[in-house]
Amino acid sequence: MTIQTTYTQARAGLASLLDTVTDNREIVIIQRRGREDVAMISADELSGVLETAHLLRSPKNAARLIKSLERVREKGHP
Question: Per its UniProt record, what Pfam families does this chain match (predicted)?
Fold first, then answer.
């Protein structure tokens, strides 16, 4: 789930917002007037996203990973 907030609201409740991001794995979109929005994501979550992107960068490796997932699902695992 994604939470959207304004810069002013984010600044006023920053400590609580940081806890929400890290405790609940939420992504927070901070809207800035006249500027590009910014996403707040936990460092651990970002690391996982970057690792996944790295693993899927190679089409050959991506195909192998997808095949592995399909085999696991065929065996009845979620």
Answer: PhdYeFM_antitox
